[in-house]
């Protein structure tokens, strides 16, 4: 793993949260994106070398909607940048982590993503994040 790439925060209202985080961070978000496969609208803020990703559900059955219903708004996941997501999935499985998706999938910000189940990482949802090489 190379670095913390971003911290994902589940929010009920992306517009209101963009305003709040603009005040908090002193800068506006630089990008919004919808990831239909995950049922989520995202908004990204730059914080030094790292990013904050705000996540708003687009439907009541999305993972973000379920998270908010269960735990409320707040930190949803920590994403780590990796060079080779497939090798990292294999390595982490060998180390005993539960991988939620065996194959990487397309995520926000033109990345491949995979997740580790929070039960295998002290209650923290971990996202592996790799640039898609065009």
TrEMBL record:
GO molecular function, one term: methylmalonyl-CoA epimerase activity
Coiled coil: none
VOC domain residues: 3-131
GO biological process entries: L-methylmalonyl-CoA metabolic process
UniProt keyword list: Metal-binding
Family statement drawn from the similarity comment of this UniProt entry: Belongs to the methylmalonyl-CoA epimerase family.
Name assigned to this protein: VOC domain-containing protein
UniProt organism field: Neotamlana sedimentorum
